[in-house]
Amino acid sequence: MKVLIVNQAKVRQLLPMNECIDVMADALMALARGEATMPLRQILWLPDKTGALAMMPSFIGSIDSVGLKVITVFQGNHGTQYDSHQGAVLLFETSHGQLLSMMDATTITAIRTAAVSGVATRLLARPDSKSLAILGTGVQGRSHLSAMIHARPIETVRIWSRNAEHAQHFAKREEERHGLSILVASSVAEAVSDADIICTTTSAREPILNGEWIPAGAHINAVGSSVPFARELDAAAVKKTTLYVDRRESILSEGGDFLLARKEGAVDDTHIIAEIGEVLLDETKGRRSSDEITLFKSLGLAVEDLAAAKHIYNKAVKEGVGVMVELGGERDDE
Hints:
Helix content is 36%, strand content 24%. It is α/β, with parallel strands linked by helices and 334 residues long. The longest helix has 20 residues, at 105-124.
């Protein structure tokens, strides 16, 4: 049997941000409706904690697909030629369990993570939001700039990075790409001072965003931390926000921003208002006032990878993109 191989460049071609935002909304609604099955991700850490192997299986009945993303996560790759997230997404059909496709997970992860934040921003940010602050200038900083431009009519952008040289390079490159003026802030406080939307996309272990700096009415997408022992927001920041999540089970197991604030007594489990899929289904209200500070804590879900992979596969087959490889899977009686 043949398997379709979709490389990094073709994934980028087949998964534009505007399409991915819609695909992610559908996946999150399927999860909220109970149409998806998704155990918590399994993580195998290297003994020295410099890297990990993560395995994320899922099933979505509405698209008749089951799959697995397997990636390595090496945060020390920042500043090198290697992405921090590398691996593959495996897509299977559900009639005979046939492997349909293997595709690059690096770009799927980069695009779908930001696209989910785009979904949350459309639901939770004020409709007139025009100013954006991005903390972190790596892959997710770049992807989130693209997603936020699709989600709201962004006019001004401020960025911050611990590495000033990286920030300047980011600003120059993205100004040319998007035709926006991008200012480099000297501090996080300066970057977020008048922001309508704040995206935290760093590899920080300790808080970089303090509650006292967040302006009234802002919306925050907290993306960088997906483990229980690291966070980008301090307890005061979490406490003053209205908290929405991609999945309750995941944040209660892996969401360091929330778990550490809870450990410090700033919040309890009732602080979680809803999953984004529930808001999409109108089961729960989103933003309630113009002064409210909303927070979307993103952990990244296997159903997002699976939905993105199925979308890519369908387009690749239709457009004749990718390489078919004879792999196997037929019964071998010899």
